What we know:
The chain has 166 residues and is mainly beta. 0% of the residues lie in helices and 51% in strands.
Amino acid sequence: SFNPASVTSGNSSTLTLSVGASTAQGTYPITVTGTGSTTHNVTFNLTVGTGNPGGRTFTNDTNYQIRDYSTTTSSITSNATGTAASPVKLSITISHTCAEDLNIRLRGPSGTYYLVDAYGGTSCTQYGTRTFTVPVSQQAAGTWTLDIRDVYFGDTGFLDSWTITV
Ligand SMILES: [Ca+2]
Ligand SMILES: [Ca+2]
């Protein structure tokens, strides 16, 4: 709805948009057209949902290549309120033939790094899905980043997905 429903040049009207409870989460482009002696358009994006309303578990399932001697990063934006749980819980799924190549750190919203999984070992194992608990001292909201460094040649793979509960 528009309040007021019509205006003369130089005045403003407030547009109120409501969506149904069953509206799918996502970003919707909105175009507003004002028509009079001339016509003007304005466009903006309406975001429906927070991705995780009220929840404290967030996932990024975008795949990222893991290459020898390279660092792969993947971020998750949390809108959870207050202080992060300590420990935070992580579930990491990686397709990689040598988990021992990988040194994995978590960076919290404040910029502090926490070691999650250290590289090293005498023989290679598939990574698969692994879970971790990481003691932190952080606020919960902001950008959490997984930082995966492959420290040895020969075995590569990709980050499939990761989930954090803050
Ligand atoms: Ca490697
Ligand atoms: Ca994936």
